[in-house]
Amino acid sequence: MAEHLDLNAGNKEELYLSLVPQIKALIGNETDSVANLANVAAALKEAFHFFWVGFYLVKEDELVLGPFQGPIACTRIQKGRGVCGTSWETEKVIIVDDVEAFPGHIACSSLSKSEIVVPILKNNSVIGVLDVDSDELATFDEIDEKYLTRLCLWLGSIL
Prior knowledge:
Number of strands: 6
Strand content: 25-35%
Structural class: alpha+beta
CATH topology of the domain at 51-158: Beta-Lactamase
Helix content: 25-40%
Radius of gyration: 15 Å
Mean pLDDT: 94
Order of helices and strands: HHEEEHEEEH
Strand order of the largest sheet: 3-2-1-6-5-4
Distance between the termini: 19 Å
């Protein structure tokens, strides 16, 4: 198991290309979902210095807060509510450049300015979402979508 991440990459894409294999090596053969999601959240936060990185997991009819890194967060989110609930309902990645402009945005922190939410699918059903917030506007783009989607596809296969 790795004890640290090698984060000496240049641009954002190079950092993802360096980080994703390290995350997979960090998890290795670990089968505990909580441990794995916690390490993924920590690695993403450490690598990119995002404001908040975490997971919401589908439990019955709502998303329930899972492992995360950052300030305290909303505990439960209904399907179709906010960015996370909408991503769950539509089974699509949602990038929001300005969370204040997103209809029905749930403000867990007034410091959050932009957000990306990526659904995690297993057997063609959403089992959770990866939620990443920035304290700057328009932080996320197609590079984040590409690599976070790949990461979530992999997570869906191991959870």
